[in-house]
Amino acid sequence: MVRKTLSVKKTAGRGRPSRSEDQPNYKEVILDGAEGLFAQHGFYGVSTRQVAVEAGIDVALVHYYFGTKRGLFDAVFLRRAEILNAARLASLDAYERDNAGALTAEGAIAAFVHPLIDASLTGGPGWKSYFALVAQVNNTPAWGGATMTRFFDPVVHRLIDVLSLALPDAQENELYWGYQFLTGAMTLCLSETGRIDLLSNGACHSNDLEAIRNRLTGYCAAGFRALVESQRPTAAVSPT
Amino acid sequence: MVRKTLSVKKTAGRGRPSRSEDQPNYKEVILDGAEGLFAQHGFYGVSTRQVAVEAGIDVALVHYYFGTKRGLFDAVFLRRAEILNAARLASLDAYERDNAGALTAEGAIAAFVHPLIDASLTGGPGWKSYFALVAQVNNTPAWGGATMTRFFDPVVHRLIDVLSLALPDAQENELYWGYQFLTGAMTLCLSETGRIDLLSNGACHSNDLEAIRNRLTGYCAAGFRALVESQRPTAAVSPT
DNA sequence: GTCTATAACTGGATAGAC
DNA sequence: GTCTATCCAGTTATAGAC
Protein backbone atom coordinates (compact mmCIF):
# COMPACT_ATOMS: atom_id res chain seq x y z
CA MET A 1 0.00 0.00 0.00
CA VAL A 2 2.46 2.63 1.19
CA ARG A 3 4.73 3.18 -1.76
CA LYS A 4 8.17 4.55 -1.17
CA THR A 5 8.87 7.33 -3.59
CA LEU A 6 11.98 5.79 -5.02
CA SER A 7 13.74 8.10 -7.41
CA VAL A 8 16.26 5.47 -8.39
CA LYS A 9 16.34 5.68 -12.16
CA LYS A 10 17.75 2.28 -13.01
CA THR A 11 20.67 0.14 -11.91
CA ALA A 12 21.40 -2.26 -14.75
CA GLY A 13 22.34 0.06 -17.59
CA ARG A 14 22.89 -2.50 -20.30
CA GLY A 15 20.64 -3.06 -23.32
CA ARG A 16 16.95 -2.23 -23.14
CA PRO A 17 15.60 -1.48 -19.68
CA SER A 18 15.01 -4.75 -17.84
CA ARG A 19 12.45 -3.17 -15.49
CA SER A 20 12.24 -6.22 -13.29
CA GLU A 21 12.68 -5.07 -9.74
CA ASP A 22 14.28 -1.67 -9.67
CA GLN A 23 12.03 0.50 -11.80
CA PRO A 24 8.27 0.59 -11.40
CA ASN A 25 7.18 0.93 -15.05
CA TYR A 26 3.76 2.01 -13.95
CA LYS A 27 2.25 1.83 -17.39
CA GLU A 28 2.53 -1.93 -17.43
CA VAL A 29 1.55 -2.25 -13.79
CA ILE A 30 -1.60 -0.25 -14.46
CA LEU A 31 -2.40 -2.35 -17.52
CA ASP A 32 -1.95 -5.53 -15.51
CA GLY A 33 -4.24 -4.38 -12.75
CA ALA A 34 -6.84 -3.00 -15.12
CA GLU A 35 -6.79 -6.20 -17.14
CA GLY A 36 -7.66 -8.33 -14.16
CA LEU A 37 -10.40 -6.02 -12.97
CA PHE A 38 -12.00 -5.47 -16.38
CA ALA A 39 -11.94 -9.23 -16.95
CA GLN A 40 -13.80 -9.86 -13.72
CA HIS A 41 -16.34 -7.05 -13.78
CA GLY A 42 -16.44 -5.57 -17.26
CA PHE A 43 -15.81 -2.02 -18.38
CA TYR A 44 -18.55 -0.36 -16.36
CA GLY A 45 -18.02 -2.56 -13.31
CA VAL A 46 -14.59 -1.09 -12.63
CA SER A 47 -13.61 2.44 -11.61
CA THR A 48 -10.33 4.10 -12.38
CA ARG A 49 -9.85 4.42 -8.63
CA GLN A 50 -10.01 0.67 -8.20
CA VAL A 51 -7.46 0.33 -10.95
CA ALA A 52 -5.22 2.80 -9.15
CA VAL A 53 -5.52 0.94 -5.85
CA GLU A 54 -4.82 -2.37 -7.61
CA ALA A 55 -1.71 -0.90 -9.18
CA GLY A 56 -0.63 0.75 -5.96
CA ILE A 57 -0.59 4.27 -7.38
CA ASP A 58 -2.82 7.31 -7.60
CA VAL A 59 -5.80 7.86 -9.87
CA ALA A 60 -4.25 10.86 -11.50
CA LEU A 61 -1.49 8.68 -12.86
CA VAL A 62 -3.96 6.51 -14.67
CA HIS A 63 -5.26 9.53 -16.51
CA TYR A 64 -1.78 10.83 -17.07
CA TYR A 65 -0.83 7.66 -18.94
CA PHE A 66 -4.07 6.73 -20.67
CA GLY A 67 -6.17 9.86 -20.85
CA THR A 68 -9.61 8.40 -20.36
CA LYS A 69 -11.00 5.22 -18.93
CA ARG A 70 -11.90 4.07 -22.43
CA GLY A 71 -8.35 4.75 -23.51
CA LEU A 72 -7.13 2.52 -20.73
CA PHE A 73 -9.54 -0.21 -21.76
CA ASP A 74 -8.45 -0.06 -25.37
CA ALA A 75 -4.82 -0.20 -24.33
CA VAL A 76 -5.54 -3.31 -22.28
CA PHE A 77 -7.33 -4.89 -25.19
CA LEU A 78 -4.71 -4.00 -27.73
CA ARG A 79 -1.63 -5.08 -25.78
CA ARG A 80 -2.17 -8.81 -26.05
CA ALA A 81 -4.20 -8.70 -29.27
CA GLU A 82 -1.05 -7.73 -31.13
CA ILE A 83 0.90 -10.59 -29.59
CA LEU A 84 -1.89 -13.06 -30.33
CA ASN A 85 -2.35 -11.94 -33.90
CA ALA A 86 1.33 -12.34 -34.66
CA ALA A 87 1.44 -15.79 -33.08
CA ARG A 88 -1.66 -16.99 -34.87
CA LEU A 89 -0.65 -15.69 -38.26
CA ALA A 90 2.71 -17.40 -37.86
CA SER A 91 0.98 -20.59 -36.78
CA LEU A 92 -1.36 -20.59 -39.78
CA ASP A 93 1.49 -19.77 -42.15
CA ALA A 94 3.60 -22.59 -40.77
CA TYR A 95 0.72 -25.03 -41.02
CA GLU A 96 0.01 -24.16 -44.61
CA ARG A 97 3.69 -24.25 -45.54
CA ASP A 98 4.43 -27.59 -43.87
CA ASN A 99 1.30 -29.37 -45.01
CA ALA A 100 0.75 -28.08 -48.52
CA GLY A 101 -1.47 -30.51 -50.41
CA ALA A 102 -2.68 -32.24 -47.27
CA LEU A 103 -4.52 -29.50 -45.45
CA THR A 104 -7.35 -30.48 -43.14
CA ALA A 105 -9.99 -28.61 -41.20
CA GLU A 106 -8.55 -30.07 -38.00
CA GLY A 107 -5.12 -28.74 -38.84
CA ALA A 108 -6.34 -25.27 -39.72
CA ILE A 109 -8.45 -24.98 -36.59
CA ALA A 110 -5.64 -26.31 -34.43
CA ALA A 111 -3.26 -23.75 -35.89
CA PHE A 112 -5.80 -21.06 -35.06
CA VAL A 113 -6.68 -22.22 -31.56
CA HIS A 114 -3.50 -23.68 -30.10
CA PRO A 115 -1.64 -20.39 -29.76
CA LEU A 116 -4.42 -19.19 -27.50
CA ILE A 117 -4.45 -22.31 -25.39
CA ASP A 118 -0.69 -22.23 -25.11
CA ALA A 119 -0.77 -18.62 -24.00
CA SER A 120 -3.39 -19.36 -21.39
CA LEU A 121 -1.56 -22.43 -20.10
CA THR A 122 1.97 -21.09 -19.99
CA GLY A 123 1.77 -17.32 -20.33
CA GLY A 124 0.81 -16.47 -16.78
CA PRO A 125 -2.36 -15.23 -15.11
CA GLY A 126 -2.59 -12.08 -17.21
CA TRP A 127 -3.51 -14.18 -20.20
CA LYS A 128 -6.35 -15.86 -18.36
CA SER A 129 -7.75 -12.46 -17.49
CA TYR A 130 -7.34 -11.36 -21.06
CA PHE A 131 -9.32 -14.27 -22.47
CA ALA A 132 -12.10 -13.66 -19.98
CA LEU A 133 -12.17 -10.11 -21.25
CA VAL A 134 -12.30 -11.17 -24.89
CA ALA A 135 -15.21 -13.48 -24.17
CA GLN A 136 -17.16 -10.61 -22.67
CA VAL A 137 -16.39 -8.28 -25.54
CA ASN A 138 -17.29 -10.98 -28.06
CA ASN A 139 -20.72 -11.15 -26.44
CA THR A 140 -21.32 -7.44 -25.96
CA PRO A 141 -24.04 -6.23 -28.33
CA ALA A 142 -23.42 -2.50 -28.13
CA TRP A 143 -19.82 -2.40 -29.36
CA GLY A 144 -18.50 -5.95 -29.10
CA GLY A 145 -18.88 -6.88 -32.74
CA ALA A 146 -17.11 -3.76 -33.92
CA THR A 147 -14.31 -4.17 -31.39
CA MET A 148 -13.67 -7.80 -32.28
CA THR A 149 -13.66 -6.85 -35.93
CA ARG A 150 -11.19 -4.06 -35.36
CA PHE A 151 -8.69 -6.16 -33.48
CA PHE A 152 -9.05 -9.67 -34.84
CA ASP A 153 -10.42 -9.64 -38.38
CA PRO A 154 -7.17 -10.16 -40.30
CA VAL A 155 -6.27 -13.38 -38.55
CA VAL A 156 -9.82 -14.70 -38.92
CA HIS A 157 -9.76 -14.05 -42.65
CA ARG A 158 -6.48 -15.91 -42.76
CA LEU A 159 -8.15 -18.87 -41.05
CA ILE A 160 -11.02 -18.76 -43.54
CA ASP A 161 -8.47 -18.85 -46.36
CA VAL A 162 -6.76 -21.94 -45.03
CA LEU A 163 -10.09 -23.59 -44.31
CA SER A 164 -11.24 -23.00 -47.87
CA LEU A 165 -8.10 -24.78 -49.08
CA ALA A 166 -8.79 -27.67 -46.73
CA LEU A 167 -12.47 -27.77 -47.71
CA PRO A 168 -12.43 -26.77 -51.39
CA ASP A 169 -16.12 -27.55 -51.87
CA ALA A 170 -17.21 -25.22 -49.11
CA GLN A 171 -19.19 -22.13 -49.94
CA GLU A 172 -17.83 -19.00 -48.38
CA ASN A 173 -20.85 -18.25 -46.21
CA GLU A 174 -20.76 -21.74 -44.73
CA LEU A 175 -17.22 -21.09 -43.57
CA TYR A 176 -18.32 -17.88 -41.89
CA TRP A 177 -21.13 -19.64 -40.09
CA GLY A 178 -18.75 -22.36 -39.02
CA TYR A 179 -16.41 -19.75 -37.68
CA GLN A 180 -19.23 -18.09 -35.77
CA PHE A 181 -19.92 -21.33 -33.94
CA LEU A 182 -16.22 -21.91 -33.38
CA THR A 183 -15.57 -18.52 -31.87
CA GLY A 184 -18.55 -18.77 -29.54
CA ALA A 185 -17.37 -22.10 -28.22
CA MET A 186 -13.73 -21.06 -28.06
CA THR A 187 -14.10 -17.76 -26.25
CA LEU A 188 -16.45 -19.29 -23.71
CA CYS A 189 -13.97 -22.09 -23.00
CA LEU A 190 -11.05 -19.73 -22.65
CA SER A 191 -12.90 -17.51 -20.21
CA GLU A 192 -13.10 -20.35 -17.68
CA THR A 193 -16.34 -19.25 -16.05
CA GLY A 194 -16.63 -22.34 -13.85
CA ARG A 195 -20.02 -23.11 -15.31
CA ILE A 196 -19.16 -26.61 -16.55
CA ASP A 197 -17.69 -27.56 -13.18
CA LEU A 198 -21.01 -26.86 -11.50
CA LEU A 199 -23.06 -28.37 -14.31
CA SER A 200 -21.09 -31.60 -14.48
CA ASN A 201 -20.83 -31.84 -10.72
CA GLY A 202 -17.06 -31.96 -10.94
CA ALA A 203 -16.68 -34.33 -13.88
CA CYS A 204 -15.22 -31.54 -16.04
CA HIS A 205 -13.19 -28.50 -15.12
CA SER A 206 -13.22 -25.10 -16.79
CA ASN A 207 -9.52 -24.72 -16.33
CA ASP A 208 -8.63 -28.05 -17.94
CA LEU A 209 -7.52 -26.54 -21.22
CA GLU A 210 -5.68 -29.68 -22.23
CA ALA A 211 -8.99 -31.50 -22.19
CA ILE A 212 -10.40 -28.76 -24.38
CA ARG A 213 -7.55 -28.53 -26.86
CA ASN A 214 -8.23 -31.58 -29.02
CA ARG A 215 -11.91 -31.89 -28.23
CA LEU A 216 -12.71 -28.42 -29.48
CA THR A 217 -10.64 -28.91 -32.61
CA GLY A 218 -12.23 -32.25 -33.50
CA TYR A 219 -15.72 -31.03 -32.63
CA CYS A 220 -15.53 -27.99 -34.84
CA ALA A 221 -13.77 -29.73 -37.71
CA ALA A 222 -16.55 -32.30 -37.80
CA GLY A 223 -19.01 -29.43 -37.65
CA PHE A 224 -17.44 -27.70 -40.62
CA ARG A 225 -17.59 -30.88 -42.65
CA ALA A 226 -21.24 -31.32 -41.75
CA LEU A 227 -21.92 -27.81 -42.99
CA VAL A 228 -20.25 -28.56 -46.30
CA GLU A 229 -22.05 -31.87 -46.73
CA SER A 230 -25.53 -30.46 -46.27
CA GLN A 231 -24.75 -27.30 -48.16
CA ARG A 232 -27.73 -25.25 -49.28
CA PRO A 233 -27.89 -24.03 -52.86
CA THR A 234 -27.85 -20.45 -51.60
CA ALA A 235 -26.12 -18.11 -53.99
CA ALA A 236 -24.03 -20.87 -55.49
CA VAL A 237 -21.62 -20.02 -58.29
CA SER A 238 -24.01 -18.53 -60.81
CA PRO A 239 -23.18 -20.08 -64.22
CA THR A 240 -22.45 -17.68 -67.04
CA MET B 1 -42.69 11.57 -21.46
CA VAL B 2 -45.32 13.54 -19.58
CA ARG B 3 -47.45 10.87 -18.00
CA LYS B 4 -51.03 11.69 -17.09
CA THR B 5 -51.76 10.52 -13.59
CA LEU B 6 -54.68 8.37 -14.54
CA SER B 7 -56.44 7.01 -11.52
CA VAL B 8 -58.73 4.83 -13.61
CA LYS B 9 -58.52 1.47 -11.91
CA LYS B 10 -59.76 -0.77 -14.68
CA THR B 11 -62.63 -0.80 -17.13
CA ALA B 12 -63.13 -4.41 -18.17
CA GLY B 13 -64.01 -6.11 -14.90
CA ARG B 14 -64.24 -9.67 -16.16
CA GLY B 15 -61.72 -12.45 -15.51
CA ARG B 16 -58.08 -11.63 -14.80
CA PRO B 17 -57.00 -8.02 -15.46
CA SER B 18 -56.32 -7.56 -19.16
CA ARG B 19 -53.94 -4.63 -18.58
CA SER B 20 -53.70 -3.78 -22.28
CA GLU B 21 -54.39 -0.12 -22.61
CA ASP B 22 -56.14 1.19 -19.56
CA GLN B 23 -53.90 0.17 -16.70
CA PRO B 24 -50.17 0.87 -16.67
CA ASN B 25 -48.87 -2.29 -14.96
CA TYR B 26 -45.59 -0.62 -14.24
CA LYS B 27 -43.90 -3.74 -13.02
CA GLU B 28 -43.90 -5.20 -16.50
CA VAL B 29 -43.08 -1.88 -18.13
CA ILE B 30 -40.06 -1.51 -15.86
CA LEU B 31 -38.95 -5.06 -16.60
CA ASP B 32 -39.25 -4.43 -20.34
CA GLY B 33 -37.19 -1.27 -20.21
CA ALA B 34 -34.59 -2.75 -17.90
CA GLU B 35 -34.29 -5.82 -20.08
CA GLY B 36 -33.42 -3.80 -23.13
CA LEU B 37 -30.92 -1.63 -21.31
CA PHE B 38 -29.20 -4.45 -19.45
CA ALA B 39 -28.94 -6.38 -22.69
CA GLN B 40 -27.23 -3.47 -24.40
CA HIS B 41 -24.90 -2.28 -21.65
CA GLY B 42 -24.74 -4.95 -18.97
CA PHE B 43 -25.57 -4.72 -15.30
CA TYR B 44 -23.07 -2.02 -14.39
CA GLY B 45 -23.59 -0.06 -17.58
CA VAL B 46 -27.14 0.87 -16.67
CA SER B 47 -28.43 3.07 -13.87
CA THR B 48 -31.76 2.70 -12.18
CA ARG B 49 -32.45 6.25 -13.29
CA GLN B 50 -32.05 5.27 -16.93
CA VAL B 51 -34.44 2.40 -16.35
CA ALA B 52 -36.95 4.81 -14.86
CA VAL B 53 -36.69 7.17 -17.81
CA GLU B 54 -37.08 4.29 -20.26
CA ALA B 55 -40.19 3.12 -18.44
CA GLY B 56 -41.56 6.64 -18.19
CA ILE B 57 -41.75 6.64 -14.42
CA ASP B 58 -39.72 7.77 -11.42
CA VAL B 59 -36.69 6.09 -9.89
CA ALA B 60 -38.39 5.59 -6.58
CA LEU B 61 -40.91 3.30 -8.22
CA VAL B 62 -38.17 1.01 -9.42
CA HIS B 63 -37.00 0.54 -5.87
CA TYR B 64 -40.56 0.24 -4.62
CA TYR B 65 -41.16 -2.75 -6.89
CA PHE B 66 -37.79 -4.44 -6.92
CA GLY B 67 -35.93 -3.27 -3.84
CA THR B 68 -32.42 -3.12 -5.21
CA LYS B 69 -30.87 -2.89 -8.62
CA ARG B 70 -29.73 -6.48 -8.32
CA GLY B 71 -33.27 -7.48 -7.45
CA LEU B 72 -34.45 -5.85 -10.65
CA PHE B 73 -31.79 -7.63 -12.66
CA ASP B 74 -32.70 -11.00 -11.22
CA ALA B 75 -36.37 -10.37 -11.92
CA VAL B 76 -35.51 -9.58 -15.53
CA PHE B 77 -33.46 -12.73 -15.81
CA LEU B 78 -36.02 -14.95 -14.15
CA ARG B 79 -39.09 -13.79 -16.05
CA ARG B 80 -38.23 -15.39 -19.36
CA ALA B 81 -36.05 -18.16 -17.93
CA GLU B 82 -39.17 -19.77 -16.49
CA ILE B 83 -40.97 -19.57 -19.81
CA LEU B 84 -37.96 -20.95 -21.67
CA ASN B 85 -37.40 -23.81 -19.27
CA ALA B 86 -40.99 -24.95 -19.53
CA ALA B 87 -40.91 -24.78 -23.33
CA ARG B 88 -37.63 -26.63 -23.61
CA LEU B 89 -38.57 -29.38 -21.18
CA ALA B 90 -41.80 -29.90 -23.10
CA SER B 91 -39.88 -29.95 -26.35
CA LEU B 92 -37.39 -32.55 -25.11
CA ASP B 93 -40.17 -34.66 -23.61
CA ALA B 94 -42.11 -34.59 -26.85
CA TYR B 95 -39.07 -35.50 -28.86
CA GLU B 96 -38.22 -38.46 -26.65
CA ARG B 97 -41.84 -39.64 -26.59
CA ASP B 98 -42.39 -39.39 -30.34
CA ASN B 99 -39.08 -40.87 -31.41
CA ALA B 100 -38.44 -43.59 -28.85
CA GLY B 101 -35.97 -46.09 -30.28
CA ALA B 102 -34.75 -43.72 -33.00
CA LEU B 103 -33.24 -40.87 -31.04
CA THR B 104 -30.45 -38.88 -32.67
CA ALA B 105 -28.08 -36.16 -31.54
CA GLU B 106 -29.59 -33.88 -34.17
CA GLY B 107 -33.04 -34.42 -32.80
CA ALA B 108 -32.06 -33.84 -29.21
CA ILE B 109 -30.16 -30.67 -30.00
CA ALA B 110 -32.96 -29.41 -32.19
CA ALA B 111 -35.46 -29.97 -29.41
CA PHE B 112 -33.18 -28.00 -27.10
CA VAL B 113 -32.40 -25.13 -29.45
CA HIS B 114 -35.54 -24.60 -31.52
CA PRO B 115 -37.67 -23.19 -28.71
CA LEU B 116 -35.10 -20.44 -28.29
CA ILE B 117 -34.94 -19.66 -31.99
CA ASP B 118 -38.73 -19.66 -32.22
CA ALA B 119 -38.98 -17.28 -29.29
CA SER B 120 -36.45 -14.95 -30.85
CA LEU B 121 -38.11 -15.04 -34.26
CA THR B 122 -41.72 -14.72 -33.24
CA GLY B 123 -41.78 -13.62 -29.61
CA GLY B 124 -41.10 -9.94 -30.11
CA PRO B 125 -38.13 -7.68 -29.44
CA GLY B 126 -38.04 -8.42 -25.72
CA TRP B 127 -36.80 -11.89 -26.48
CA LYS B 128 -33.93 -10.58 -28.58
CA SER B 129 -32.85 -8.41 -25.70
CA TYR B 130 -33.15 -11.32 -23.35
CA PHE B 131 -30.88 -13.55 -25.40
CA ALA B 132 -28.30 -10.82 -25.63
CA LEU B 133 -28.43 -10.65 -21.86
CA VAL B 134 -28.03 -14.39 -21.47
CA ALA B 135 -24.98 -14.37 -23.72
CA GLN B 136 -23.35 -11.77 -21.53
CA VAL B 137 -24.14 -13.60 -18.33
CA ASN B 138 -22.90 -16.86 -19.82
CA ASN B 139 -19.57 -15.15 -20.42
CA THR B 140 -19.30 -13.27 -17.14
CA PRO B 141 -16.54 -14.78 -14.99
CA ALA B 142 -17.47 -13.27 -11.64
CA TRP B 143 -21.00 -14.64 -11.25
CA GLY B 144 -22.04 -15.84 -14.71
CA GLY B 145 -21.39 -19.53 -14.16
CA ALA B 146 -23.36 -19.60 -10.94
CA THR B 147 -26.24 -17.62 -12.44
CA MET B 148 -26.53 -19.84 -15.49
CA THR B 149 -26.45 -22.87 -13.22
CA ARG B 150 -29.15 -21.49 -10.99
CA PHE B 151 -31.57 -20.74 -13.79
CA PHE B 152 -30.87 -23.30 -16.47
CA ASP B 153 -29.31 -26.44 -15.04
CA PRO B 154 -32.40 -28.68 -14.97
CA VAL B 155 -33.12 -28.31 -18.65
CA VAL B 156 -29.48 -28.87 -19.54
CA HIS B 157 -29.39 -32.08 -17.54
CA ARG B 158 -32.50 -33.14 -19.39
CA LEU B 159 -30.68 -32.54 -22.68
CA ILE B 160 -27.72 -34.58 -21.48
CA ASP B 161 -30.09 -37.43 -20.63
CA VAL B 162 -31.63 -37.47 -24.08
CA LEU B 163 -28.21 -37.17 -25.71
CA SER B 164 -26.91 -40.14 -23.75
CA LEU B 165 -29.83 -42.16 -25.11
CA ALA B 166 -29.05 -41.02 -28.64
CA LEU B 167 -25.33 -41.68 -28.16
CA PRO B 168 -25.25 -44.70 -25.87
CA ASP B 169 -21.48 -45.14 -26.20
CA ALA B 170 -20.74 -41.62 -25.02
CA GLN B 171 -18.97 -41.09 -21.74
CA GLU B 172 -20.67 -38.57 -19.51
CA ASN B 173 -17.84 -36.06 -19.48
CA GLU B 174 -17.72 -36.00 -23.28
CA LEU B 175 -21.35 -34.96 -23.30
CA TYR B 176 -20.61 -32.12 -20.90
CA TRP B 177 -17.77 -30.89 -23.07
CA GLY B 178 -19.97 -31.12 -26.10
CA TYR B 179 -22.58 -29.08 -24.33
CA GLN B 180 -20.02 -26.46 -23.36
CA PHE B 181 -19.16 -25.94 -27.03
CA LEU B 182 -22.83 -25.94 -27.96
CA THR B 183 -23.82 -23.33 -25.42
CA GLY B 184 -20.97 -21.03 -26.37
CA ALA B 185 -21.95 -21.15 -30.03
CA MET B 186 -25.65 -20.91 -29.34
CA THR B 187 -25.64 -17.98 -26.94
CA LEU B 188 -23.32 -16.02 -29.20
CA CYS B 189 -25.60 -16.60 -32.18
CA LEU B 190 -28.73 -15.63 -30.29
CA SER B 191 -27.18 -12.40 -29.07
CA GLU B 192 -26.90 -11.10 -32.64
CA THR B 193 -23.85 -8.93 -32.09
CA GLY B 194 -23.43 -8.04 -35.75
CA ARG B 195 -19.93 -9.40 -35.74
CA ILE B 196 -20.43 -11.91 -38.54
CA ASP B 197 -22.01 -9.26 -40.76
CA LEU B 198 -18.85 -7.18 -40.58
CA LEU B 199 -16.53 -10.17 -40.80
CA SER B 200 -18.21 -11.71 -43.83
CA ASN B 201 -18.68 -8.35 -45.47
CA GLY B 202 -22.41 -8.88 -45.71
CA ALA B 203 -22.42 -12.53 -46.81
CA CYS B 204 -23.98 -13.59 -43.49
CA HIS B 205 -26.30 -11.77 -41.14
CA SER B 206 -26.46 -12.04 -37.38
CA ASN B 207 -30.20 -11.77 -37.38
CA ASP B 208 -30.74 -14.58 -39.90
CA LEU B 209 -31.78 -17.13 -37.31
CA GLU B 210 -33.31 -19.39 -39.93
CA ALA B 211 -29.87 -19.76 -41.45
CA ILE B 212 -28.57 -20.66 -38.02
CA ARG B 213 -31.30 -23.08 -37.01
CA ASN B 214 -30.26 -26.15 -38.97
CA ARG B 215 -26.62 -25.26 -39.36
CA LEU B 216 -26.03 -25.05 -35.64
CA THR B 217 -27.87 -28.29 -35.03
CA GLY B 218 -25.96 -30.23 -37.68
CA TYR B 219 -22.64 -28.69 -36.71
CA CYS B 220 -22.97 -29.60 -33.06
CA ALA B 221 -24.42 -33.04 -33.69
CA ALA B 222 -21.43 -33.86 -35.87
CA GLY B 223 -19.23 -32.46 -33.14
CA PHE B 224 -20.78 -34.69 -30.50
CA ARG B 225 -20.27 -37.74 -32.68
CA ALA B 226 -16.65 -36.79 -33.23
CA LEU B 227 -16.17 -36.57 -29.47
CA VAL B 228 -17.60 -40.04 -29.00
CA GLU B 229 -15.52 -41.53 -31.81
CA SER B 230 -12.22 -40.28 -30.51
CA GLN B 231 -13.14 -40.92 -26.92
CA ARG B 232 -10.30 -40.96 -24.43
CA PRO B 233 -10.07 -43.83 -21.99
CA THR B 234 -10.49 -41.39 -19.10
CA ALA B 235 -12.38 -42.91 -16.20
CA ALA B 236 -14.15 -45.46 -18.35
CA VAL B 237 -16.64 -47.81 -16.76
CA SER B 238 -14.42 -49.55 -14.23
CA PRO B 239 -15.16 -53.28 -14.47
CA THR B 240 -16.10 -55.04 -11.26
C1' DG C 1 6.35 11.78 -13.30
C1' DT C 2 3.85 11.68 -9.30
C1' DC C 3 1.08 13.42 -5.86
C1' DT C 4 -2.78 16.47 -3.36
C1' DA C 5 -6.92 18.58 -3.84
C1' DT C 6 -11.00 19.42 -5.78
C1' DA C 7 -14.37 20.36 -9.39
C1' DA C 8 -18.48 18.72 -11.36
C1' DC C 9 -21.33 15.20 -11.67
C1' DT C 10 -23.84 10.51 -11.31
C1' DG C 11 -24.82 6.49 -8.61
C1' DG C 12 -28.20 3.64 -5.44
C1' DA C 13 -31.31 4.20 -2.11
C1' DT C 14 -34.85 6.23 1.10
C1' DA C 15 -38.13 9.39 3.84
C1' DG C 16 -42.24 11.34 3.58
C1' DA C 17 -45.95 13.94 1.19
C1' DC C 18 -50.06 12.89 -1.47
C1' DG D 1 -48.91 3.32 -5.57
C1' DT D 2 -46.59 7.14 -7.10
C1' DC D 3 -44.05 11.23 -6.85
C1' DT D 4 -40.81 15.11 -4.79
C1' DA D 5 -36.90 15.95 -2.53
C1' DT D 6 -32.84 14.68 -0.72
C1' DC D 7 -28.74 12.08 1.27
C1' DC D 8 -24.23 10.96 0.50
C1' DA D 9 -20.92 7.74 -1.32
C1' DG D 10 -18.58 7.25 -5.28
C1' DT D 11 -17.53 8.65 -10.30
C1' DT D 12 -14.38 10.73 -14.16
C1' DA D 13 -11.33 14.01 -14.89
C1' DT D 14 -8.29 18.01 -14.24
C1' DA D 15 -5.42 21.93 -12.14
C1' DG D 16 -1.51 22.78 -9.93
C1' DA D 17 2.09 21.90 -6.35
C1' DC D 18 6.41 19.34 -5.97
Question: What's the short story on this structure?
Answer:
Two copies of one chain form a homodimer. Chain A is built from ten helices and no strands.
- Helix tally of chain A equals 10
User: Biggest interface between protein chains, with counts per chain?
Assistant: A-B, 69 and 69 residues
| Average pLDDT score of chain A | 90
Instruction: State the CATH topology of the largest domain in chain A.
Output: Tetracycline Repressor, domain 2
Roughly what percent helix of chain A?
55-70%
CATH H level, superfamily name of the largest domain in chain A:
Tetracycline Repressor, domain 2
Mass-distribution shape of chain A: elongated
Estimate what percentage of residues of chain A fall within beta strands: under 5%
Order of helices and strands of chain A: HHHHHHHHHH
The N- and C-terminal alpha carbons of chain A lie at a distance of: 73 Å
Instruction: Kindly state the number of beta strands of chain A.
Output: 0
Query: Can you summarize the main beta sheet of chain A?
Result: none
Runs of chain A with pLDDT <50, length 5+? 1-16
CATH class of the largest domain in chain A: Mainly Alpha
